[in-house]
TrEMBL record:
Residues 210-238 are annotated as: Disordered. InterPro entries: PE-PGRS_N, PGRS_rpt, PPE_sf. This is PE-PGRS family protein. Pfam families: PE (PF00934), PGRS (PF21526). It comes from the Bacteria. The lineage of its organism: Bacteria, Bacillati, Actinomycetota, Actinomycetes, Mycobacteriales. It comes from Mycobacterium tuberculosis (strain ATCC 25177 / H37Ra). Gene3D superfamilies: HP0062-like domain. Residues 4-94 form the PE domain.
Length: 238
Protein backbone atom coordinates (compact mmCIF):
# COMPACT_ATOMS: atom_id res chain seq x y z
CA UNK A 1 0.00 0.00 0.00
CA UNK A 2 1.44 3.32 -1.05
CA UNK A 3 1.11 6.49 0.97
CA UNK A 4 0.80 10.00 -0.40
CA UNK A 5 2.44 12.78 1.56
CA UNK A 6 1.12 16.21 0.72
CA UNK A 7 2.16 19.54 2.15
CA UNK A 8 -0.70 22.05 1.86
CA UNK A 9 1.71 25.01 1.84
CA UNK A 10 3.57 23.64 -1.19
CA UNK A 11 0.32 22.96 -3.02
CA UNK A 12 -0.90 26.48 -2.38
CA UNK A 13 2.41 27.93 -3.54
CA UNK A 14 2.31 25.83 -6.72
CA UNK A 15 -1.24 26.92 -7.46
CA UNK A 16 -0.22 30.55 -7.03
CA UNK A 17 2.75 30.14 -9.37
CA UNK A 18 0.59 28.46 -12.01
CA UNK A 19 -2.00 31.21 -11.75
CA UNK A 20 0.69 33.85 -12.30
CA UNK A 21 2.06 31.89 -15.24
CA UNK A 22 -1.38 31.67 -16.80
CA UNK A 23 -1.90 35.38 -16.40
CA UNK A 24 1.44 36.10 -18.10
CA UNK A 25 0.65 33.81 -21.04
CA UNK A 26 -2.81 35.30 -21.45
CA UNK A 27 -1.35 38.82 -21.51
CA UNK A 28 1.22 37.79 -24.15
CA UNK A 29 -1.46 36.18 -26.31
CA UNK A 30 -3.61 39.29 -26.11
CA UNK A 31 -0.66 41.48 -27.08
CA UNK A 32 0.17 39.28 -30.10
CA UNK A 33 -3.40 38.98 -31.28
CA UNK A 34 -3.68 42.22 -33.28
CA UNK A 35 -0.25 42.17 -35.02
CA UNK A 36 -0.49 38.49 -36.01
CA UNK A 37 -4.10 38.29 -37.08
CA UNK A 38 -4.00 41.50 -39.10
CA UNK A 39 -0.83 40.93 -41.18
CA UNK A 40 -0.57 43.34 -44.08
CA UNK A 41 0.46 42.16 -47.51
CA UNK A 42 4.03 43.00 -48.49
CA UNK A 43 3.00 44.02 -51.96
CA UNK A 44 0.04 44.53 -54.20
CA UNK A 45 0.55 41.23 -55.99
CA UNK A 46 -1.52 38.13 -55.38
CA UNK A 47 1.34 36.18 -53.81
CA UNK A 48 1.84 38.77 -51.07
CA UNK A 49 -1.89 38.86 -50.37
CA UNK A 50 -2.05 35.05 -50.14
CA UNK A 51 0.93 34.94 -47.73
CA UNK A 52 -0.65 37.62 -45.52
CA UNK A 53 -3.96 35.75 -45.44
CA UNK A 54 -2.16 32.50 -44.53
CA UNK A 55 -0.34 34.12 -41.61
CA UNK A 56 -3.58 35.72 -40.44
CA UNK A 57 -5.40 32.36 -40.49
CA UNK A 58 -2.63 30.73 -38.45
CA UNK A 59 -2.76 33.60 -35.96
CA UNK A 60 -6.52 33.21 -35.51
CA UNK A 61 -6.18 29.45 -35.01
CA UNK A 62 -3.49 30.09 -32.40
CA UNK A 63 -5.73 32.51 -30.53
CA UNK A 64 -8.52 29.92 -30.46
CA UNK A 65 -6.20 27.23 -29.12
CA UNK A 66 -4.66 29.62 -26.58
CA UNK A 67 -8.14 30.53 -25.28
CA UNK A 68 -8.93 26.84 -24.75
CA UNK A 69 -5.55 26.35 -23.05
CA UNK A 70 -6.22 29.31 -20.77
CA UNK A 71 -9.58 27.80 -19.74
CA UNK A 72 -7.96 24.45 -18.97
CA UNK A 73 -5.16 26.18 -17.07
CA UNK A 74 -7.66 28.10 -14.93
CA UNK A 75 -9.57 24.89 -14.11
CA UNK A 76 -6.34 23.12 -13.19
CA UNK A 77 -5.28 25.95 -10.89
CA UNK A 78 -8.72 25.96 -9.26
CA UNK A 79 -8.57 22.19 -8.65
CA UNK A 80 -5.08 22.46 -7.20
CA UNK A 81 -6.15 25.27 -4.87
CA UNK A 82 -9.19 23.28 -3.72
CA UNK A 83 -6.98 20.26 -3.00
CA UNK A 84 -4.61 22.38 -0.96
CA UNK A 85 -7.56 23.75 1.02
CA UNK A 86 -8.96 20.26 1.63
CA UNK A 87 -5.60 19.04 2.94
CA UNK A 88 -5.32 22.09 5.18
CA UNK A 89 -8.82 21.59 6.60
CA UNK A 90 -8.18 17.90 7.24
CA UNK A 91 -4.98 18.65 9.12
CA UNK A 92 -6.69 21.38 11.12
CA UNK A 93 -9.50 18.98 12.07
CA UNK A 94 -6.99 16.34 13.15
CA UNK A 95 -5.07 18.84 15.24
CA UNK A 96 -8.28 20.17 16.77
CA UNK A 97 -9.50 16.67 17.65
CA UNK A 98 -6.13 15.76 19.14
CA UNK A 99 -6.14 18.94 21.22
CA UNK A 100 -9.74 18.30 22.32
CA UNK A 101 -8.87 14.74 23.35
CA UNK A 102 -5.96 16.02 25.40
CA UNK A 103 -8.21 18.53 27.17
CA UNK A 104 -11.00 16.02 27.85
CA UNK A 105 -8.76 13.14 28.93
CA UNK A 106 -8.52 14.11 32.66
CA UNK A 107 -12.25 14.72 33.19
CA UNK A 108 -13.15 11.68 31.09
CA UNK A 109 -10.97 9.49 33.27
CA UNK A 110 -12.17 10.96 36.59
CA UNK A 111 -15.86 11.71 35.96
CA UNK A 112 -16.68 9.68 32.88
CA UNK A 113 -17.66 12.80 30.92
CA UNK A 114 -15.66 15.12 28.67
CA UNK A 115 -15.06 18.73 29.56
CA UNK A 116 -15.93 20.19 26.16
CA UNK A 117 -17.83 18.71 23.23
CA UNK A 118 -21.17 17.24 22.19
CA UNK A 119 -22.29 13.77 23.25
CA UNK A 120 -22.48 10.94 20.74
CA UNK A 121 -25.86 9.90 19.34
CA UNK A 122 -27.28 6.49 20.21
CA UNK A 123 -26.88 3.94 17.41
CA UNK A 124 -28.40 0.70 18.72
CA UNK A 125 -32.23 0.54 19.14
CA UNK A 126 -33.22 2.13 22.46
CA UNK A 127 -29.66 3.23 23.25
CA UNK A 128 -29.24 6.43 25.25
CA UNK A 129 -27.39 9.39 23.85
CA UNK A 130 -23.99 10.30 25.19
CA UNK A 131 -23.56 13.06 27.73
CA UNK A 132 -22.21 16.41 26.60
CA UNK A 133 -19.22 18.17 28.05
CA UNK A 134 -19.35 19.36 31.65
CA UNK A 135 -18.49 22.91 30.66
CA UNK A 136 -19.90 23.14 27.15
CA UNK A 137 -21.70 20.67 24.90
CA UNK A 138 -25.09 19.31 23.89
CA UNK A 139 -26.33 15.85 24.80
CA UNK A 140 -26.51 13.21 22.09
CA UNK A 141 -29.79 12.00 20.59
CA UNK A 142 -31.29 8.76 21.90
CA UNK A 143 -31.96 6.01 19.37
CA UNK A 144 -35.52 4.95 18.54
CA UNK A 145 -37.08 1.84 20.10
CA UNK A 146 -37.04 -1.45 18.20
CA UNK A 147 -40.68 -2.39 18.86
CA UNK A 148 -43.90 -0.40 18.81
CA UNK A 149 -44.95 0.91 22.22
CA UNK A 150 -41.40 0.83 23.61
CA UNK A 151 -39.80 4.20 24.23
CA UNK A 152 -36.49 5.04 22.64
CA UNK A 153 -33.29 5.93 24.41
CA UNK A 154 -32.96 9.02 26.56
CA UNK A 155 -31.09 12.05 25.30
CA UNK A 156 -27.70 12.70 26.80
CA UNK A 157 -27.20 15.21 29.59
CA UNK A 158 -26.03 18.67 28.60
CA UNK A 159 -23.20 20.59 30.14
CA UNK A 160 -23.23 23.95 31.87
CA UNK A 161 -23.81 25.53 28.46
CA UNK A 162 -25.79 23.28 26.17
CA UNK A 163 -29.11 21.60 25.46
CA UNK A 164 -30.18 18.11 26.52
CA UNK A 165 -32.01 16.14 23.86
CA UNK A 166 -35.46 14.74 24.76
CA UNK A 167 -36.38 11.09 25.03
CA UNK A 168 -37.46 9.54 21.75
CA UNK A 169 -41.24 8.93 22.05
CA UNK A 170 -42.55 5.41 21.78
CA UNK A 171 -44.22 4.35 18.59
CA UNK A 172 -48.04 4.16 18.87
CA UNK A 173 -49.53 0.71 19.34
CA UNK A 174 -52.07 -0.29 16.75
CA UNK A 175 -55.56 -1.00 18.15
CA UNK A 176 -56.59 -4.64 18.21
CA UNK A 177 -59.06 -5.67 15.51
CA UNK A 178 -62.40 -7.36 16.16
CA UNK A 179 -62.25 -10.93 17.39
CA UNK A 180 -62.89 -13.61 14.76
CA UNK A 181 -66.04 -15.72 15.05
CA UNK A 182 -65.67 -19.26 16.26
CA UNK A 183 -65.95 -22.12 13.79
CA UNK A 184 -69.33 -23.19 15.11
CA UNK A 185 -72.28 -21.08 16.05
CA UNK A 186 -72.31 -19.73 19.57
CA UNK A 187 -75.29 -18.72 21.58
CA UNK A 188 -75.77 -16.69 24.70
CA UNK A 189 -76.39 -18.81 27.73
CA UNK A 190 -80.01 -18.82 28.79
CA UNK A 191 -80.91 -17.57 32.15
CA UNK A 192 -80.94 -20.18 34.81
CA UNK A 193 -84.40 -21.47 35.59
CA UNK A 194 -85.62 -21.24 39.09
CA UNK A 195 -84.97 -24.52 40.83
CA UNK A 196 -88.02 -26.38 41.96
CA UNK A 197 -91.60 -25.63 41.25
CA UNK A 198 -93.15 -22.46 42.31
CA UNK A 199 -94.99 -22.83 45.51
CA UNK A 200 -98.68 -22.08 45.31
CA UNK A 201 -99.94 -19.52 47.75
CA UNK A 202 -100.58 -21.02 51.14
CA UNK A 203 -104.19 -22.05 51.72
CA UNK A 204 -106.06 -20.05 54.23
CA UNK A 205 -106.54 -22.07 57.36
CA UNK A 206 -110.14 -22.63 58.49
CA UNK A 207 -111.18 -20.86 61.63
CA UNK A 208 -110.59 -22.87 64.71
CA UNK A 209 -113.74 -23.62 66.69
CA UNK A 210 -113.18 -23.08 70.32
CA UNK A 211 -113.34 -26.18 72.40
CA UNK A 212 -116.62 -26.82 74.16
CA UNK A 213 -116.81 -26.33 77.81
CA UNK A 214 -116.82 -29.49 79.80
CA UNK A 215 -120.32 -30.63 80.16
CA UNK A 216 -121.54 -28.76 77.08
CA UNK A 217 -121.56 -29.61 73.35
CA UNK A 218 -121.83 -27.45 70.32
CA UNK A 219 -122.70 -28.26 66.72
CA UNK A 220 -121.02 -26.46 63.89
CA UNK A 221 -123.55 -25.24 61.43
CA UNK A 222 -123.23 -24.27 57.83
CA UNK A 223 -120.82 -21.47 57.07
CA UNK A 224 -118.78 -22.28 60.12
CA UNK A 225 -121.25 -20.68 62.61
CA UNK A 226 -121.64 -22.45 65.91
CA UNK A 227 -125.06 -23.18 67.39
CA UNK A 228 -125.75 -22.35 70.98
CA UNK A 229 -124.30 -24.88 73.34
CA UNK A 230 -126.52 -27.00 75.47
CA UNK A 231 -125.68 -28.79 78.61
CA UNK A 232 -125.03 -32.52 78.34
CA UNK A 233 -125.53 -34.52 81.45
CA UNK A 234 -122.55 -36.54 82.45
CA UNK A 235 -122.53 -40.06 81.09
CA UNK A 236 -124.93 -39.34 78.18
CA UNK A 237 -124.16 -39.00 74.48
CA UNK A 238 -124.75 -35.56 73.04
Amino acid sequence: MSFVIAVPEFLSAAATDLANLGSTISAANAAASIPTTGVLAAGADDVSAAIAALFGAHAQAYQTISAQAATFHAQFVQTLSAGAGAYANAEAANVQQSLLNAINAPTQALLGRPLIGDGADGTAPGQNGGAGGLLYGNGGNGAAGVNAGIAGGSGGAAGLIGTADPVVPAEPVRPAGPADKAGCCTATAARAATAGRRLSPAATAAPVVPAATRGYSATVGPGGSARPARRVPPGSTP
